[in-house]
């Protein structure tokens, strides 16, 4: 899956124990780039435990067009698909969306996910 925006860099991985999915979005993203990241995350989520938390790191994310709205819809979908919590890490407009909680740092987000 290739990005339509040259500097859009999604990174998706899961914790060793299968309880957390981490999605890091850095660079400028169009809606199609968010959809590409969603597809990668969905594939990785299939390997997670039945109850898993999701950390979405958007500290370096620059949305173009409706990319931020697409991200919010995806976060809402993750909750419907079984995620116990979706925590978005970022500031300003990037904090708005479908996440359950917001965090100022990855460490804070991990504490929130660990508490659930």
Structural commentary:
By secondary structure, the protein is an alpha/beta fold. Helices cover 34% and strands 33% of the residues. It has 3 helices and 5 strands, in the order E-E-H-E-H-E-E-H. It has helices at residues 31-45, 67-80, 106-115; strands at 9-14, 20-29, 52-63, 83-89, 101-103. A 5-stranded mixed β-sheet has the order 1-2-3-4-5, sandwiched between helices. Helix 1 runs parallel beside helix 2 (67-80). It is globular. The N and C termini lie far apart (33 Å). The relative contact order is 0.17. The model has no long low-confidence stretch (mean pLDDT 84).
What key phrases describe this protein's structure?
116 residues; alpha/beta; 5 strands
What's a concise summary of this model?
With 116 residues, the chain is α/β, with parallel strands linked by helices. The protein has helices at residues 31-45, 67-80, 106-115, and strands at residues 9-14, 20-29, 52-63, 83-89, 101-103.
